[in-house]
Amino acid sequence: MTSPLILSRRHLGLLGMPALLGGPAKAQAVAEDPLPSWKPGPSRQAILAFLADVTTPGAPGYVAPPERIAVFDNDGTLWCEIPTVQLMFALARVKALAPRHPAWATTQPFKAALEGDEAALAASGAEGISEFLLATHAGNTPEEFNAIVTEWLAQARHPRFRRPYTTTVYQPMLELLRLTQAHGFRNYIVSGGGVEFIRAWSEQVYGIPPEQVIGSTIRTEFRFPHGGKPELHRVPSLDFIDDGPGKPVAIGKFIGRRPIAAFGNSDGDLEMLQYVTSSPGRRFGLIVHHDDAAREVAYDRQSQFGKLDRALDQAAPNHWTVVSMKNEWNTVFPPLG
Amino acid sequence: MTSPLILSRRHLGLLGMPALLGGPAKAQAVAEDPLPSWKPGPSRQAILAFLADVTTPGAPGYVAPPERIAVFDNDGTLWCEIPTVQLMFALARVKALAPRHPAWATTQPFKAALEGDEAALAASGAEGISEFLLATHAGNTPEEFNAIVTEWLAQARHPRFRRPYTTTVYQPMLELLRLTQAHGFRNYIVSGGGVEFIRAWSEQVYGIPPEQVIGSTIRTEFRFPHGGKPELHRVPSLDFIDDGPGKPVAIGKFIGRRPIAAFGNSDGDLEMLQYVTSSPGRRFGLIVHHDDAAREVAYDRQSQFGKLDRALDQAAPNHWTVVSMKNEWNTVFPPLG
């Protein structure tokens, strides 16, 4: 079975994007058109103006390279969040684990998950869903979990777009990640998703190494059994939910300085956007607005898919850039190689 | 008042160490003698052999640059831990805060701290010391706390060596940090000390940026008061103690991959050394052994200063390098400019 990560690497190469993978074509690609998937318009203009301002020595907005840190939400900001990919993983994982847990066939929330009954799963409430997620994610070392995620991604396909989830990432955002990196930025993911789920593929798909991925965490324990080897073990206990006000808290803990640019798409990113864009100096906030029902999914406000409500209200007064996916993006997903 | 960070920067320059600060002399300095403060001997040889093995393409021990991660304990490994610098900070801080807390004059553990009665403070037990540390560290934003630490470091002096604590760092370890960095390593501090205490000066003193400092943490909250600004606030509640088995746990959480080299000096570093050096491939573990009573302090095993007992027993079977500070270091501290 071909690894999706290798597929992604190949795709990016075919797309003329070796720079994302650290190839020598970086300078040349940037010199041509750094954002080919972004149509001329206010968002593209705002991005380029910000990058010019913070990287031009002597400019009033200049920011020294060590302080050039950008934070990106993942679900709905860097890749498609409908359906939630990690939930699809958990639904597949519960089936793989079921033979070892015969009681699951008759016990909620596992029965619902095994039957693919999402309504019944949702009805189990936050506690039920949490139990389901912990049971499908814990009980392994980080290395084992990484291999499990990699193997699943290799064969899973997005139900509507019929392509690997590692290719339902947003092509314009891949270009943006590459461009900020070429301007001396260190890009961090700050996601409500599980940190080790994202770390399994973020370097190959986004060019973001594991140590620049911040996310929700379950507890791990150090174990060194007699005659065994020292390992970390992922236990079924929640450690931290990296969402809403948790995002600036995690940024403070992991990065230890305030980023100068933040990218999100929902109310779960509001506090991160506020925290990043309110400090003195040239700052940048951007919201990916899902308004493209034809090429992706249209949702905001009180939608069943996600909520962009308070953050959308706050965009104008805070001078955050709101990207219309429908009007400002030439393409949504990378073409398949 | 001159900032100690500026002092450090100047000292390093005077010592012919611009490379640590990212100057262009790096390659040249390394080409001369990369470790001038390390005497010829087993430790120096082991370090140089390891670096050659992991950076020589085609060599059996070769490690690609993204995986070249090294973790360093701080207290007793990178700087002198007798007395514990952060405890000295807390003792000074309790005096500065006392006018706002009149009850402290008659309440333990604060009375003991205010009177500098370390025996009485120790007698207050883990709970009392924790209360004392939280009260002297919390109640501010990370930016405010950083400024408080910086201001204190500018005037505090080591009681025996009569120099700023930012200069009671180990000159041989500064050279080692510079050398690993020149070999493509990303160096992380993994300390039992408070993460924001170390982040206030680690970049200037060690060339290690805030995002590469892992330590013990107190909780922070995101607050955005009406009419105010969004800030993190450090609250007097313990979040995580980064010591012993907590060190590999924190490495997994923050870095997300196993480092290939670990440097420590006490039993609190044992699990980190085990975790790092037990994975397949060329790995390196080093213990700084405090055996130099004349130039620093001699201690290990059951000493009053620190305990190096289980880790020392584990060194030989695990092929960890044990550095005799007395016999293998030409100098201990950087000369004052």
TrEMBL record, chains A, B:
> Which pathway does it serve?
Amino-acid biosynthesis; L-serine biosynthesis; L-serine from 3-phospho-D-glycerate: step 3/3
Name the Enzyme Commission number(s) assigned to this protein. Answer: 3.1.3.3
Q: Which UniProt keywords apply?
A: Amino-acid biosynthesis, Hydrolase, Magnesium, Metal-binding, Serine biosynthesis
Q: Give the highest taxon in the source lineage.
A: Bacteria
**InterPro entries with a match to the protein in the record:** HAD-like_SerB, HAD-like_sf, HAD_sf
Cofactor needs:
Mg(2+)
Which PANTHER family does the annotation name? PHOSPHOSERINE PHOSPHATASE (PTHR43344:SF2)
User: What is the designated name of this protein?
Assistant: phosphoserine phosphatase
User: From which source organism is this entry?
Assistant: Teichococcus aerophilus
